[in-house]
Amino acid sequence: MPSHHKKKKQKKYDPPKSNHSKENINPCSEYDRQPVAEVQLESSKPYLVKRSEQVGRYIVAARDLKAGDVIIETPPFVVGPCAETEPVCLGCHSAFQPGSVVYRCEICNWRICSPSCQGLVPAGSHRQLECIPLRDKAVHNHLQTSPAAQVKLMYEAILTLRCMLLKTVDRPQYDRLLGMDPLNDVRQQIPKLWNRNQKEIVERIRNQWGFAEYSELELHTICGIIEVNAFEVGQEPTKARALFPEAYLLMHDCTPNTGHTDAPQTHHLTVRVLRDVKAGEPLTLTYAHILQGTLKRRQHLREEKFFSCNCRRCTDPSELGTNCSALRCTKCPKGTHTADGSAQPRKRKCHCRQCSTVMSCEAVILLLEQLSQQLETIGGNDVDGLETFLRVQGAVLHDNHYLLLSVKHSLCELYGKIEGFLIPQLSREQLKRKETLCRDLLEVVDQLEPALSRLRGTIMYEMHVPLLIEAGQLFQGGVIQRAELRRRLKEVQRLLKESERILALEPEGTQEHGIAEAARDALKNMGDV
Ligand SMILES: C[S@@+](CC[C@H](N)C(=O)[O-])C[C@H]1O[C@@H](n2cnc3c(N)ncnc32)[C@H](O)[C@@H]1O
């Protein structure tokens, strides 16, 4: 729990209004449902809370911020298993390895990774929240008799139950959780979603598990709070969802100016600005995948986050010049098709920018679905299969199309990492290939998520390897002289320094932190150039 939290008188839940006032609101005077202590402390924060009709509450920089400045640092309100997940440890949320010893919680009998799992006991975790209620209601019996698909849904319901149990275990925390917008009015208009929640979560918790003391509306509200506001946390083999104070106020943008990271085990969240931000500028986060095309991002945001994105990138058919969603024109040799900026899928058309041929967006979506399915049939480590996909579909899609970018990203990591393609096994052509793939990716990432982007940091680290080897080989072969060698090594150093600068910001124990250490070692080994 954040240290500034003070106990306050209980307030009745007042669902947030979706017709937010247009007026900009000073954090010291706004927040009808905010605990007083928190409002008083807001003024020391690097952000101000505002509100608009279109976005609801959002935050802006309270002063000029420098790339790397931390704007939010917070423990989670609550963490829990992802939607429809395979069974995970209810302590640390790590997946169970096939054949690993089966341990069970001695109280509730649900599976855990080990009796000494550190995640079982902290505040807001299994033992404090659902463990004894699950035992008292013998919920484990349902787990044993249910088919795998139902078991996944039972794990999904755990996070809703955890939030709900806060009402009795930690009422102030529960009240703060209810400060998040569940968008009930919007979600209720989507029968597929509402009815699914009713059947799979609300009725499960109330009727099957026997927690009838919680009303249907309370449980639907928690479902909404999770759907609208939860962050994905953890790294393989741990994957979970978490709700955080403050961070939920970050509005979405498809070219965000903040990035976030969560610490292994505790899932404490750190949000930093990725680039310099001027006072008054909205602080933004992406709720979608950065290397995804506009149609897909907008679809995800509409269906899963319940709004139409009209950011600069979504309304620009070229996606800020990257052509991330462009298809090659079948009628003219140089043309590319891109969707116009309309937010409404039915109205959208994909025009060739050279010859004005028009394709319907439905046809484009269908084609991309087929290509995605084709891609899924290629094994994750199948270098040749992925290269063939790039070659064949490169005739249909722009070089920077997001489907090709995702293949390029996989390949740039595979060259140098898997048996048969380890660094000493790579031919000159394959090393060059790795370099080219990294350059292609960097060119796009520099546009969409510049400066301190984690993706940039990892690509730069990958790219230093072929450049370093090539420089050494060319010098030893007498192809380049000392001055050219020096120039090339300087470039390698630049990549390593930038990669280290970015990834050293990641918490200890993460893969990225490990890469930062490797970059530091590589720089030390290079010595003075
Ligand atoms: C995590 S919440 C952000 C906080 C929220 N605005 C509030 O007042 O509680 C996400 C919701 O905010 C709104 N939102 C965030 N970014 C937006 C954007 N770029 N355009 C429109 N609505 C946005 C959407 O309703 C979205 O479902």
From TrEMBL:
Region (Disordered): 1-31
CDD domains xref list: SET_SMYD
Composition bias, Basic and acidic residues: 12-23
Domain of life from the UniProt record: Eukaryota
Ranges of biased composition (kind: Basic residues): 1-11
Alphabetized PROSITE patterns for the sequence: SET
Assigned GO CC terms: nucleus
Residue stretches spanning the membrane: none
Pfam families documented for this protein: SET (PF00856)
Entry GO MF terms: N-methyltransferase activity; protein methyltransferase activity; S-adenosylmethionine-dependent methyltransferase activity
PANTHER family named in the record: SET AND MYND DOMAIN CONTAINING, ARTHROPOD-SPECIFIC, MEMBER 4, ISOFORM A
Name of the protein in question: SET domain-containing protein
